[in-house]
Write a structure and sequence with these properties.
Length: about 270
């Protein structure tokens, strides 16, 4: 009598059918923008008409003071940082002057800002690092910037964009919200949103793109409830939250309009 043929242990049958054990599961689809190439171009064309030369709201006089201001702005309002740094930057606008001022004096200037003790320590430490490793100059290199105390990728991107004109995308809470809310660049993390925005935004608009998105998120597409009636891309927007498809008049704004000024003043109080 012949021995029965051994079963193939690599297969498990149920009702004569393979369960598919051992097969690779299909990878999850990466999120994609809900907008076509033409729609993305039109979105940023309108932003460029509304604010031809958008300005960052952090006050600074050079690349170093910009770097310090961005480091101080974590978990703080731009208005609050500006109020604290006006006197500081008047007497310490270089790493050498900041280091000579000392941690205690820097702390006294920025004590109205959240986490001021740790931030004052970082300002002194990054000043030391700039003098020691970069001849007192702010480097035009992301890898070198993120090695500085208190400097992360977002801070580095802001400095590269504003101080050196690099086409970077600094994703803050406003841009992260907009990317997901309207489906422009869906992503769970700032890095994912950044990568998609850099990929889909036409190069001609990248110089000011992060400012346009920040200002749009701060004053129009707000966290609690978007002011869709003020939105110049309401007809293009694919957000299920939007309350109108009628775009606001596409007119240039003088820096920020009166409504925005009032809101900024309330936030600063």
């Amino acid at each position: 009598m012949k021995n029965p043929k051994p079963k193939d242990s690599s297969k498990t049958s149920t009702g004569g059918r393979s369960t598919g054990a051992g097969k690779k599961k299909p990878s999850a689809r990466r999120p994609r923008s809900l907008y076509s190439v033409d729609e993305v171009r039109e979105i940023f064309r309108r932003f460029s008409v509304q604010r031809p030369e958008p300005k960052g709201e952090l006050e600074h006089v050079n690349a170093f003071t910009l770097l310090v201001a961005v480091v101080l702005s974590a978990q703080a309002t731009d208005a609050g940082v500006n109020k604290a740094t006006r006197a500081l930057f008047a007497i310490a606008d270089t790493p050498q002057k900041m280091l000579a001022l000392g941690e205690e004096a820097v702390g006294q200037h920025v004590r109205t800002i959240g986490l001021w003790r740790n931030k004052a320590k970082n300002v002194i430490a990054l000043s030391q690092a700039l003098i020691r490793d970069h001849g007192g100059e702010v480097p035009d290199d992301r890898d070198q910037l993120v090695e500085l105390p208190g400097v992360g990728r977002k801070t580095a991107n802001v400095v590269l964009n504003m101080a050196f004109g690099r086409h970077t995308m600094a994703v803050d809470t406003h841009i992260l919200r907009i990317g997901n809310r309207i489906g422009l660049a869906p992503g769970k993390t700032p890095d994912q949103v950044e990568a998609m925005l850099v990929k889909i935004i036409p190069d001609e608009f990248m110089r000011h793109a992060h400012h346009w998105l920040i200002l749009h998120g701060r004053y129009v597409c707000k966290a609690r409830k978007p002011d869709c009636w003020r939105c110049v891309i309401a007809d293009i927007c694919k957000s299920p939250e939007k309350s109108t498809s009628e775009p606001a008049p596409l007119v240039p704004l003088d820096d920020i309009d009166p409504i925005e000024v009032a809101e900024a003043e309330v936030t600063a109080q």
